[in-house]
């Protein structure tokens, strides 16, 4: 029986091809991916705010300021090309030239991403062989292979795609993301690639991505570490042949903005669910805040607390750790004497703290609630009407094991 091929993830949208191969940066698994836009695509990106930026991040930031149309994005896994000085920058430039020659496109039409170990020089012989091998492999059915090739400590590939309506036409958006550890994004996050067939300007795409990343990826945390390589790209091929969207006043802008927000939200939650060693997905829902900023700050403070995360792993209803983390968040408005805290899951909901003080609760029910693989920490500040969610995971023994010998 012939295996049916599927267009998935980044290749779900028209005008996008992809491939994923084993080039040799890692011992056995796929470690090189290529996104190819034969007729070009408008691309926007957001990147890490870490003051230590990898060579490919620096290159991409510069070239995106100079150009808006691209034909290829090359990604390697296994080497971050970060903290590699002038040699790292030279290696990016050489990689760009290698791929542009292989695809017969201009060097300025190429973007590059890397992920993996920090502080190692790129093996350019492996890069050369990989570029030659991957270029002929691109196809509209290569999305799944590409999503596997960008993985590092990820346990599963992460890709999403769906259709939506734009000015009476059916548009498609798809994406893939990698990340399992060193996840506490700021602006962009990990490595993420989103594609759509909509015709839209770079400025409009960038505005949408900034807003979406801030509302989704920036609300996801695994371990509190912001990477040197965090990058998210959105590429629009224009194959839908809609009237070009250039500003928020244009027809279709709101629909595309909603789609970008939705796919970023889905991809961000997939990241957290695959956190290194994670056994539980945890959503911290802060309500009753005076400002959105306060709700976000408290949510992130609780979500990044090692003591809260280990309590989730141990299935211990230790609400004291939650209120403590809320208390040291950077907030403008806070009153410990009015806070309510509850835990919930598919197994029920239980109130643990009322008006800043503990209440008598059923320990067996609390344990049952925390046995679920998806848990909500509910914090009501009783100070206003604003709310925000932050996604995180528990800390297990495996997180330490994975990161104790990451370089090997």
TrEMBL record:
Subcellular location: Cytoplasm
A UniProt-annotated Pfam family: ArgJ
Active site: residue positions: 189
GO MF annotation terms: L-glutamate N-acetyltransferase activity; L-glutamate N-acetyltransferase activity, acting on acetyl-L-ornithine as donor
Cited InterPro entries: Arg_biosynth_ArgJ (IPR002813), ArgJ-like_dom_sf (IPR016117), ArgJ_beta_C (IPR042195)
EC number assigned by the record: 2.3.1.35, 2.3.1.1
Keyword Cell inner membrane among UniProt keywords: no
Pathway as given in its UniProt record: Amino-acid biosynthesis; L-arginine biosynthesis; N(2)-acetyl-L-ornithine from L-glutamate: step 1/4; Amino-acid biosynthesis; L-arginine biosynthesis; L-ornithine and N-acetyl-L-glutamate from L-glutamate and N(2)-acetyl-L-ornithine (cyclic): step 1/1
Catalysed reactions listed for this entry: L-glutamate + acetyl-CoA = N-acetyl-L-glutamate + CoA + H(+); N(2)-acetyl-L-ornithine + L-glutamate = N-acetyl-L-glutamate + L-ornithine
Entries under CDD domains matching the protein: OAT
GO biological process: L-arginine biosynthetic process; ornithine biosynthetic process
Keywords: Acyltransferase, Amino-acid biosynthesis, Arginine biosynthesis, Autocatalytic cleavage, Cytoplasm, Multifunctional enzyme, Transferase
Residues under site feature: Cleavage: 188-189
Oligomeric and partner information: Heterotetramer of two alpha and two beta chains.
Record's function text: Catalyzes two activities which are involved in the cyclic version of arginine biosynthesis: the synthesis of N-acetylglutamate from glutamate and acetyl-CoA as the acetyl donor, and of ornithine by transacetylation between N(2)-acetylornithine and glutamate.
Protein name according to UniProt: Arginine biosynthesis bifunctional protein ArgJ
């Amino acid at each position: 029986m012939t295996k049916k091929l599927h267009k998935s993830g980044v290749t779900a949208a028209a005008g996008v091809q992809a491939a994923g191969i084993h080039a040799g940066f890692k011992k056995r698994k796929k470690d090189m991916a290529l996104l190819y836009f034969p007729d070009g695509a408008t691309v926007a990106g957001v990147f890490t705010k870490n003051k230590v930026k990898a060579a490919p991040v620096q290159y991409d930031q510069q070239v995106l300021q100079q150009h808006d149309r691209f034909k290829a994005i090359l990604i390697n896994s296994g080497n971050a090309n970060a903290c590699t000085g002038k040699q790292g920058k030279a290696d990016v430039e050489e990689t760009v030239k290698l791929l542009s020659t292989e695809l017969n496109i201009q060097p300025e039409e190429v973007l590059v991403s890397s992920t993996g170990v920090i502080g190692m020089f790129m093996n350019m012989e492996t890069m050369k062989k990989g570029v030659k091998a991957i270029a002929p492999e691109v196809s509209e059915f290569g999305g799944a292979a590409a999503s596997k090739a960008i993985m590092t400590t990820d346990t599963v590939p992460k890709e999403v795609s769906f259709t939506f309506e734009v000015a009476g036409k059916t548009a498609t958006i798809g994406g893939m993301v990698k990340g399992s550890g060193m996840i506490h994004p700021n602006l962009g996050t990990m490595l993420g690639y989103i594609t759509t067939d909509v015709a839209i300007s770079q400025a409009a795409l960038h505005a949408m991505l900034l807003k979406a990343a801030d509302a989704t990826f920036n609300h996801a945390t695994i371990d509190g570490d912001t990477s040197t390589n965090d990058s998210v790209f959105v590429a629009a091929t224009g194959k839908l042949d809609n009237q070009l969207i250039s500003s928020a006043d244009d027809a279709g802008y709101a629909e595309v903005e909603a789609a970008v927000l939705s796919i970023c939200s889905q991809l961000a939650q997939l990241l957290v669910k695959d956190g290194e060693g994670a056994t539980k997905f945890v959503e911290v829902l802060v309500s009753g805040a005076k400002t959105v900023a306060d709700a976000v700050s408290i949510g992130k403070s609780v979500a990044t607390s090692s003591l809260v995360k280990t309590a989730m792993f141990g299935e211990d209803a230790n609400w004291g750790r939650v209120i403590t983390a809320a208390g040291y968040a950077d907030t403008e408005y806070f009153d410990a004497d009015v806070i309510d805290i509850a835990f919930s899951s598919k197994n029920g909901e239980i109130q643990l703290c009322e008006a800043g003080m503990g209440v008598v609760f059923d320990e067996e029910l609390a344990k049952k609630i925390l046995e679920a693989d998806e848990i909500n920490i509910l914090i009501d500040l009783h100070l206003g009407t604003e709310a925000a969610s932050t996604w995180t995971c528990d800390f297990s023994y495996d997180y330490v094991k994975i990161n104790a010998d990451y370089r090997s």
